[in-house]
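## retry 2 of 3
previous attempt timed out at serialization; input unchanged, resubmitting
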Amino acid sequence: MKKELEKETESAFIEGSVSVYAVMNSGSRDIVEIFLSPDAKKDDGKISGIIRRAKRAGIPVTDCTEEFYEEHSTAKTNGGVLALCSDRKFLSCEELLKKGYPFICLLCGVEDPYNFGYAVRSLYAAGAKGMLLPARNWLSAAGVCVRASAGATEFIDCAVYTDDIMMMKTAKENGYTVVCAEEKDSEDLFTCKKIENAEKILLVIGGEKRGITKDILSNADCKVRIPYGGDFDMSLTASAAASVLGFEILRIKYADLGKDQKTNG
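## retry succeeded, writing output
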């Protein structure tokens, strides 16, 4: 695991057809070049679609050696396609907040890029259109996050901030109710009136170890906990909590968030 994360953090390679398509469709990064392994199935619909779009956009498509492919990829099921990309494009904190999305999120202290990607995947599916990020965040581990999120990290608008208190102040000035997932001194998620009455929500979820910073917690408008159905005193993973919290917000605010959403199942 450690070797894989070091490889991802040091590279700017996005791997897999789903991930590469997400970058192409979102414009979140500039694609410098696309590489196909010797085993890539060029007649596969997804791969051939990527090749056509790349050629239309003037992006070079190169057949690489197996050694090159192995050096820059980690997954064994990515179809043999890699994209060398620029860094992720970010908005400023003010630019994101002024968009006025009814539901945005912040993941604080999530230490594993897979868990980070899974959490973003759930939150984006639940209707979160924007994400605030501390200066140190897992989007530097591009390949892992994009793949784990099924491309959601590329579609959600992202902004990086450096100061917790200033970020909270700006969020509130733009009409956001800040809701933190927290066990102590908190309300039951399913009966919280502040979520129901909020016009716009900034949902903050902390990692299992580091959690949410004190400055954010002390300035939150409300803190909520997920009630359990049994006697269990351990926290959920960030990705599991994101699923429960995100879709409960979607349920409560369905008229605003869910009416234009696609459904699955």
